[in-house]
Amino acid sequence: MTIKKIYLNCTMYGKFKSRQIDIAICMEMVICVFIKFYIVFFFYNRLLSLKLNLDSLMILKMTM
């Protein structure tokens, strides 16, 4: 169960509404966004380097 679900369950029944939980949800979302950006950036760089390697191989092949 994620922090978000616990927060929604607790506030829905009016048991408590804590600022610490708000901060925890914000931190969880920030971490998720950073992980997503890292994954996208990593794969983009891998694809770009692969493309550059293929381009350089084609240039070498054409010059020979």
From TrEMBL:
Keyword list, A-Z: Membrane, Transmembrane, Transmembrane helix
The keyword Transmembrane appears for this protein: yes
Membrane-crossing residue ranges in chain numbering: 21-44
Protein name from the UniProt record: Uncharacterized protein
Organism in which the protein naturally occurs: Anguilla anguilla
